[in-house]
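Q: I'm writing up a methods section and want to include an example of the input and output format. Could you take the sequence below and give the corresponding predicted structure tokens, formatted cleanly so I can copy it straight into the document?
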Amino acid sequence: MLVDSYARKFSYLRLSVTDICNFSCSYCLPSGYQKPKTPLEDELSLHEIKNLLEGFALAGFTKVRFTGGEPTTRTDIAQIIEAATAIGKYQKRALSTNAWNLKSIAPRLKLSGLTHLNISVDSLNSEIFHRLTGRDQLPDVLKGIDQALALDFQGIKINAVLHRDTASDELPRFMEFVRVRPISVRFIELMKTRDHSNYAQTHFLSTGEMKLNLLREGWTVMNRMADDGPALEFAHPDFVGRIGIIAPHSEGFCDSCNRLRMTSRGKLRLCLFGEEDYSLRPWLQSAEQIKEIPSRLQALLGLKPESHFLHDGRVGQMNNFSGIGG
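A: Here is the clean output for your methods example:
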């Protein structure tokens, strides 16, 4: 297993497979996806992705999450998941999606070997959902979630970006939603990006008050597992599901970092808000090169900082979240 300069162990790969997104969320792509004005390298091919997955598996990675953009806009997304499944080392194979077509493709994803789903749902109110995402599609998203529940994935989570003007209404809605559904809903603090720093300043709300509300309502903090992400999860005896909070601005947030991120064009980003990317694409062209990936990763880990610099207002290369998947 790879270890960085701060004794953090890395076993979780977040792989963006596309920058393209078909939603226009107010905090990410309010004008929708825009084709770059200058030509960029093509996205990683299925062949390159297979080699990348093999290389990270050799480095001891046991969890992979496919992100975007919206990863299901790639017509070969099922084949990508099948490639991870075939390797045999990835015990958790997850997908982050806005669920625009989840009802129709969920069976194929399950058949491909997908084990976990993260679904972006910023509001359970149709009007607010439309305003935040640019798509009047909440009923379709909810049908997709029901379909996923029926297929018995190992884990289903909902991510909701916390907004100052909607939080007080959304927490009760989502609490009721998980009363009878085995889903973990995680509220995520807004994070500043280059493109939308003013939006974050205007709408930011700390999760601190939400945490107090949950404790007052009888929710208790769950113990963290070794491979858990940054969410602090709460459970309640009267609810089947859970509520979680992700607070990237909190002290010590980066202490348990266990993930590395790859862009859709084969570049390693050591931190979500890192200031430089490192191309691994030259090592993804042939099977003979795969064995070199672990040593390359270990060398680059020496450059990983102890923490992000959000507290200093530095967001690195993070223009918006569609390019790296959060």
